[in-house]
Fold this protein.
Amino acid sequence: MVRTFVSEKELARTYGPDSGWETVKQYREAKRLSDEQSGLARAEIARRVNRPPSAIRGWLVEGKTPRVVQAIRTARDRGWVDIDSESEQFRALNQLVAWVYSGGGIQADHMTPYFSVDDPLTVSTLTHLLRWLDIPYRYRNPDEPDSGREIIPSDGGSLLGRVLSILGTPVGVKAIQDLDLPLYLFGVSEEHRRDFVRVHLLNRGNFADGKAGTNLHVPTEDFCHDLQALFDDVADGSATISDQQFLWISAATVRDLAGSTPIRSALATQLAHGTLQPPTDRAFASTYRRTNTPSGYGYLKLYQQVRDSESAPESASQYVSRGTIRNWRQGTKPYVQTGIETAHERKWLPAVDSSAIGLTALLAWVLASGTLRDTYYPVFRCPTDTHRARFDSIATTVGFPYDLLKRGSDQNTEARPSEFGSSLGRYLYALGATRGNDDFSDVLIPPYLFHHTAHAKCFVEIWWLHHRMEDDRSTISIPSRFGDLFPSVFEGLLTDTLNYAVERNGRQVYIPNLDVSVDEILDCLPDTSES
């Protein structure tokens, strides 16, 4: 059954418990009367909807829109109104709720959320979540040494904060509130509840020196008991209140939630990708119907239920017409089903061994020197013979045909898939690529790279292929277009995951032990048994 959250009325009430929704109804009624009865005087419209004539003039003549109405439109455009729990976007919202509880807040005066990030891994994880919600952000690293580093939405932050508050996220100072777990957690699948506690482990756990068990400091004593019960409900092992506002999470519980070691990178990968071997079918399917209810994955499940049963489930008739159900039974497939089938037939879902590494190489390529169009169609820049030979090797490994298009000179040569382009692009987006219309100031490094060294090495080597210094092959120069966060996160990937000795000077990263020869065609398809 598709479960939805965040209604128009709930969102409107964040602008005023009584006046917000009333304004929406009045505005819509005024527009309806104006459209259906063009000769009706504005004064009469004002009388019927019980608003001042000046307000009606603003709405109908001057093109003004109440802030609450515009908020609902924007939320709908982003797929946040009536968002269904099957979508990757809801997974992101659920984790942002947990992030506010465990390492962030919502400012009470203007409803903008902020999220604490302590290292490149948490930066990578949080920005991956914001990408699914189409939220651009800025990085605040205060000069004061005792202040934490934070990521704050740079556009739509107030709207996101309101949506999070509807889901039950505390607003204002948490330490002075009677915190409770958000009620929606009790009506969603266990994996969402597991993600909720994973976020607490990632943000508050201490796993130094190979430890698995950890203490968590919790804002209030009552919430400590609630969180203990949630850990005990969703994971093996045990959670014990060890002291006032401290919760001891056993090693068995942590290992169950992480699923692998190292613990922190495993937690981050599970959170951002929903699996240790991304992407999932849900992430791929969620690239379809991003602003609709149900979302791509929910729609896929409805189709499969209709296809595999003699009678349509009750939930199908709520979202799908009888004609569509009849067509599905006669063999018509929705686009999301066709896309999933293509990805499975190409052995991209799930991808293993060299194919998985090859797809990571394509992700690095499209981020470093390519683009993912709004339609998810990928384009890869191949300016030299070395680039073109390497790309051909990757395309052969992954299994897709392509055309080379020279746009004036070799430097402007592009590789473009001649088949399976949209499916390939959706796969790359599910891994962590951004589209051409995504309003991000930073290129993102997906969290799974911090957990899988073979993939991380491939990513770095592809980046080296495109951005090495001409006069110093051990130095990668990161162009400013990749944003302010990328250099430090890239450095963290090199040092924390690959154990490289690194010297960074601004946007230049010197890697003395990077063993790549400029005279050889780069090959990043090694033995992948570790990944």
Observations:
- The first helix runs from residue 8 to 13.
- The first strand starts at residue 4 and ends at 5.
- The chain has a mean pLDDT of 91.
- Residues 83-273 form a domain with the Endonuclease I-creI fold (CATH 3.10.28.10).
